[in-house]
Q: What sequence folds into this?
């Protein structure tokens, strides 16, 4: 358990990077509407 807590302590969040990536997917690769739920979430919350 201590190993897990140590790993959590040194791991940085990647939320901003993930949102940047998904925005690009929505913009350029959403022809099949695979990312429509993510697009709606971003539109409502960001």
A:
């Amino acid at each position: 358990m201590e190993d897990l807590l140590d790993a959590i302590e040194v791991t940085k969040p990647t939320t901003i990077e993930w949102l940047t990536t998904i925005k690009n997917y929505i913009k350029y690769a959403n022809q099949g509407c695979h990312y429509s739920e993510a697009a709606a979430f971003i539109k409502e919350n960001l």
Summary: The mean pLDDT is 93. The radius of gyration is 15 Å. The first helix runs from residue 2 to 10. DSSP finds three helices and no strands in the chain.
